[in-house]
Design a protein that fits this description.
HTH_LacI; LacI/GalR-like_sensor; about 15% strand; 12 helices; single chain
Length: about 350
């Protein structure tokens, strides 16, 4: 078994001082005495603490580098977020260091714990779908490291967040299905521990309740098209089959559409399907997928803007920013050639 690396939290506990003091001592800031700094450095050496110091990392004016931790880069949403982050960072003379976790809580923890506080000025993070212990992020907050979460955010770490309005988006998706005449609506949800999963599920349930409708099933799983195939297959093995599916994201929606077609079930006419992302594939799959468009590029820019404000001003207040989503109506929710209308706040594409 791999031995856990010593963290600055371990050093702080051993010396009986705060994590923030240890962090400042290692960066040799003006408000830490030479005696305290020596105490910290001696303890770090004895405890085999190995920060990744680099030549520019100890410069008090900062590195002008920010770290970005994301679960994946191969899907549309994250690649678009990264574009927004990088453009804003470059406009403000910051370099972006990208770290991929492959949606693994182990790799996320390893990346964060081995990230040198002296090599970057701040961190943008999107947690994995399996992360349940957030102590590695809490250690950064205690060490005064500027930290902003985007998209997938933990509720327990008290720092700035930038997200899309998942709850309202889910309400719009469910309202649209009801407006199209569907009444037996199921929800293919994401992993239960994620804030976005909870918000989208709650929007779906509240909208059903508003219209005096019952849920025709909720299944929690991952975000892939294969998850979508497996989930819809499970639903259709039951006694009460849904006539519409609200998928937590587009990729699961793609899996649903492909499975329904393989079973000879007419998408739209017999079973409506709506997703959440506005992935470019949603336009070209047949039938095209109705969806809730997420402002991925804007989330990237705004999260980077908030992080840089925290870097430049330590007293900058915590932000909780929610950007609006938009209903995009396509063929997968149309009953007949024209359907029964586009529903509320819709934009046909």
């Amino acid at each position: 078994m791999t031995r856990r690396l010593t963290t600055i939290k371990d050093i702080a506990k051993a010396l009986g001082i705060s994590v923030a003091t240890v962090s400042r001592a290692m960066r040799d800031t003006y408000d830490v005495s030479a005696e305290t700094r020596k105490l910290v450095l001696d303890a770090a050496a004895k405890m085999n603490y190995r920060p990744n110091f680099n030549a520019t990392g100890l410069v008090k004016s900062g590195t002008h580098k920010i770290a970005v931790i994301i679960p994946a880069i191969t899907n549309y949403y994250f690649s678009t977020v990264i574009t927004g982050i990088q453009e804003y960072a470059l406009e403000h003379n910051y370099q972006v260091m990208l770290y991929l976790t492959n949606d693994s809580a182990y790799w996320e923890t390893k990346v964060v714990r081995e990230l040198s506080l002296s090599s970057v000025d701040g961190l943008l993070a999107c947690i994995t779908s399996e992360t349940s212990d957030f102590s590695h992020f809490e250690e950064l907050v205690e060490a005064d490291m500027p930290l902003v979460f985007f998209d997938r955010v933990p509720e327990t770490v008290k720092t700035s967040v930038v997200v899309q309005d998942d709850y309202t988006g889910a309400c719009m998706a469910t309202e649209h299905l009801i407006a199209q005449g569907y009444s037996k609506i199921a929800h293919l949800a994401g992993p239960p521990g994620l804030n976005l999963t909870q918000q989208r599920l709650q929007g779906y349930l509240d909208t059903l309740k508003k219209h005096n409708l019952e849920s025709y099933g909720v299944i929690h799983s991952g975000f892939s098209d294969e998850n979508g195939r497996e989930d819809i297959s499970t639903l259709f093995r039951g006694a009460s089959r849904p006539d519409a599916i609200f998928s937590v994201n587009d990729r699961k929606g793609f899996g649903v559409i492909l499975w329904l077609r393989e079973q000879g079930i007419k998408v739209g006419e017999e079973v409506g399907v709506i997703g959440f992302t506005n992935d470019p594939t949603s336009k070209i799959i047949s039938p095209s997928l109705s969806t809730i468009a997420e402002p991925a590029y804007e989330i990237g820019r705004k999260s980077c803007e908030v992080l840089i404000r925290h870097i430049q001003k330590q007293s900058y207040p915590k932000q909780a920013i929610s950007l609006p989503t938009e209903l995009i109506v396509r063929e997968s929710t149309q009953r007949g050639v024209y359907g029964k209308g586009y529903g509320l706040h819709s934009k046909p594409v």
